[in-house]
Predict the 3D structure of the following.
Amino acid sequence: MAEPAREELSALAAIFCGPDQWEVLSRSETDGTVFRILTKAEGLTGADVPLELVFHLPVNYPSCLPGISVHSKHLTRAQSMTVKEKLLKQAENLLSEPMIHELVLWIQQNLRHILNQLETGSGSEKCTFATGMTVDDGLWITLLHLDHMRAKTKYVKTVEKWASDLKLTGRLMFMGVPDSSENLQSRCGLKWKEMQREND
């Protein structure tokens, strides 16, 4: 990791020194550093919205953009994704210099404005960021195992909606046991026939 990034991490640890405000989640010479900052920003109603910002500084940071995740119980998935996109857009303006503290200050000052744009629908450019981003978050593989599916079509629609909301790409695979409803019908049919024989 470059010396400016090391200095920035030390400064951030000193700035966010309150209880649970700062935590290094992982540190690696090959993958870089991942850390979490807990902060607050003014929301739509004027009340403070707690934000958990997770930053991944790659080894060649600040020559490349950091990875950013935004989490809050007070924001929807769509709002969190928009905040992340706005932070990444702001980071593009600060490329090649330490930027994390600037990004935290920026979101503290602009969260209400971003949420207001979403509410009023004036943030029409919100969908344009995803196509123009060149952040390499690495390849993530996630397996979602659904057991005892009763309504396959409904489950598929739900999973596709989640993937769309989270801007994920991937495939749905159905493996192993045949449709459980077919098994249940054949077993019930067998028992019914056995009961009919006993009654005859």
Q: What stands out?
A: Residues 123-137, 180-200 have pLDDT under 50 and may be disordered. The two ends are 82 Å apart (CA to CA). The helical segments are 3-15, 77-92, 100-120, 129-132, 152-165, 180-199.
